[in-house]
């Protein structure tokens, strides 16, 4: 790596000063070993998995799967966790937690996390990953427990994926050939109107407590931190439920 340094020297001549520019070429040798750069004088510098290398080099990049989607995977020994592209993650996979990720330049970035299932030649199973919008690769596997070394990927992974694809194709073919079953619905349901449901809800003795909760607008607290209540809408009684442990706190009605 070459660094060009251009310091400015001030020279005094009586009351006048003039500046002259001194060009100085400084050559620094850099050795890269296991994701860490070492200068010739022994100084260490971290190499970020998010920053492209300044010179072409062979990276341990393979194909993998996140959920059901094929992705590019980088096995990075300079990373201590897992990074996944945000567009590959669904809302129900988000943990609701935000963690601080320290980059190679010393700056920090707060990113949300998600639990995703990955299947790669280096690691198979669920992981808690940092979600980033535009990582260099779809999935970056760092030094996590159970991960294979960069030079020791599972050589049978591609064949296993091919076998799975064949099985899925056969199953899909059978599914298409199978006729749809007719949904059996009791004839009585065809004659039920919203007004009939409203009357039944008001006359059913087993719903006395629920009707009282509607009147008092009582909110029931749950042990998982969730809440539920019953309310009326256009004459019908509905239940509303919300929990931080379910679908990132989404409210269901």
Write up what this structure looks like.
The chain has helices spanning 157-177, 194-203, 208-216; strands at 2-5, 8-13, 16-21, 24-27, 30-33, 36-39, 44-46, 61-66, 69-75, 82-85, 94-102, 108-119, 124-132, 139-141, 220-221, 227-233, 236-242, 251-252. The chain is an alpha+beta fold and 253 residues long. Among the domains are: 61-155, Acid Proteases (Cathepsin D, subunit A, domain 1, Beta Barrel), CATH 2.40.70; 187-252, no CATH class. The two termini are 62 Å apart.
The N- to C-terminal Cα distance equals 62 Å
> What spatial form do the alpha-carbon principal axes imply?
flat
Secondary-structure element series: EEEEEEEEEEEEEEHHHEEEE
* Number of helical elements: 3
Instruction: Note the main sheet.
Output: 6 strands, mixed, barrel
**CATH-assigned homologous superfamily of one domain:** Acid Proteases
Mean pLDDT: 75
Record the strand order, biggest sheet: 8-9-14-10-13-12
Low-confidence stretches: 1-56
Give a brief description:
The protein has 253 residues and is α+β, with helices and mostly antiparallel strands. The chain has helices at 157-177, 194-203, 208-216; strands at 2-5, 8-13, 16-21, 24-27, 30-33, 36-39, 44-46, 61-66, 69-75, 82-85, 94-102, 108-119, 124-132, 139-141, 220-221, 227-233, 236-242, 251-252.
